[in-house]
Design a protein that fits this description.
This protein has 348 residues and is an alpha/beta fold. The chain has 10 helices and 15 strands. It has helices spanning 15-26, 41-51, 59-64, 80-89, 104-117, 131-141, 176-179, 183-199, 303-313, 321-340, and strands spanning 6-11, 31-37, 54-55, 70-73, 93-96, 121-123, 148-156, 203-211, 228-235, 240-246, 256-260, 263-267, 275-279, 284-287, 344-345. The protein has a 9-stranded mixed sheet. It is globular and about 60 Å long. The two termini are 36 Å apart. The model has no long low-confidence stretch (mean pLDDT 96). It binds nicotinamide-adenine-dinucleotide.
């Protein structure tokens, strides 16, 4: 199918589009960007100048373009479900950023809209495509560390106000009406997806403290979403562990440790060897696979490639709407636990 071209429209010309989606689509031999909409036109113009595509004046104009096969939704979280459903109804495949929606109901509507339209829906959970995580899953599946008993997985950095194109304390990431959730939706959702995928088991129960400890908005008030989350999870296979997400770390931390009956595995801690296995019998194995992408060192995500493959090969996307829903469900359970101060069953 190499002669086919997937023509893309982009909703959002912010950081994730700049660092990952646009360059990865533009460099794909079977894809190109034909249109971009961002309410801040200068951002769309800058992206179009670098990667091509026409700058459009409204959401409607992009949805109406007959020459667009696929749309990337890379906007603040509150617009994900609305724009995804509109794009699917307009007959486009959709790659939507995480968290896929702000409620399970909306996530289900997105999945139903894709089914009805007969179009692909993929969610941008790129953590599971990172080489150390791919390697780790193979090793876990092969039983190298035995039965997985416990884990800890962490994703933290200094905060999205340094990453977002809305740089500073006024960023949409800090506003509940645009973001719906803070660090737990920005970073925690990545690790929720990663852990259930790595261990091949669903998260059944969650307990969490999800709080705003330090971040202030442009008025000097505490932000209206969380800036730290410390969670405990129990999976269907009996494994239990911790998930932490933070916007107040000094150094970026994107590390996962999996403890099994035969040994343990550390992912993303040592840049020289992003996968390190230490077994109880004394054996040590270090794997030099590709790295874990950080805000400072952006590596290709592989997400657009996987989405384009699914369209061209007419296969289920590597990270389907249903997968996105499960990660969202874990986040929602953690939020509910923090609110009710109870251990909560994850509802899917
Ligand atoms: N997968 C990942 O690793 C990853 C990393 C960062 C961000 N994200 C996700 O990507 C999304 C965008 O985040 P970002 O970091 O690019 O933020 P950003 O603030 O840099 O950019 C967001 C852009 O969306 C634009 N926008 C707002 N409303 C819009 C609309 N209705 N239509 C079109 N554009 C609109 C804004 O003007 C802004 O330019 C978020 O959902 C975020 O969670 C994913």
């Amino acid at each position: 199918m190499a002669e086919e071209m997937v023509k893309f429209g982009l909703f959002g010309a912010g950081s994730i589009a700049i660092y990952r989606h646009a360059p990865e689509i533009a460099s794909h031999p079977c894809a190109k960007i034909v249109a971009i909409y961002d309410p801040i036109t200068a951002r769309a113009e800058a992206l179009a100048g670098q990667y091509g595509g026409e700058v459009l004046a409204s959401e409607k104009a992009l949805l109406a373009r007959k020459d667009i096969d696929a749309i990337v939704v890379a906007t603040p979280n509150a617009h994900h479900a609305r724009l995804t459903i509109a794009a699917l109804k307009a007959g486009k495949h959709v790659l939507c950023e995480k968290p896929m929606a702000t409620s399970l109901e909306d996530a289900k509507k997105m999945i139903a809209a894709a089914k009805k339209a007969g179009k692909k829906l993929m969610i941008g959970h790129n953590q599971r495509l990172m080489p150390p995580h791919v390697k780790a899953r193979q090793l876990i599946e092969a039983g190298v560390i035995g039965d997985v008993l416990t884990f800890r997985t962490s994703f933290g950095h200094g905060g999205p106000e340094m990453w977002s194109q809305d740089k500073g304390a006024h960023t949409w990431f800090f506003k509940k009406e645009e973001a719906f959730v803070g660090t737990m939706g920005d970073l925690g959702v990545h690790k929720a997806d990663l852990i259930r995928w790595l261990l091949g088991s669903e998260v059944l129960e969650a307990g969490a403290f999800v709080d705003t400890l330090a971040k202030r908005n442009e008025k000097g008030q505490a932000i209206s979403v969380d800036d730290n989350a410390v969670c405990i999870l129990r999976l269907a296979n009996g494994a239990m562990g911790q998930l932490t997400a933070s916007w107040t770390y000094t150094n970026e931390d994107n590390i996962t440790v999996i403890y099994g009956s035969k040994g343990q595995m550390t992912l993303g801690a040592n840049p020289a060897f992003p996968v390190e296995v230490v077994l109880k019998n004394g054996e040590v194995a270090q794997y030099k696979v590709g790295g874990v992408s950080t805000n400072e060192a952006q590596l290709p995500s592989g997400i657009p490639d996987a989405f384009i493959d699914a369209i061209l090969d007419d296969t289920e996307p590597a990270i389907s709407g249903q997968e996105g829903l499960k990660a969202l469900a874990i986040v929602l359970a953690c939020l509910k636990s923090a609110e009710t101060k109870q251990i909560v069953k994850v509802e899917y």
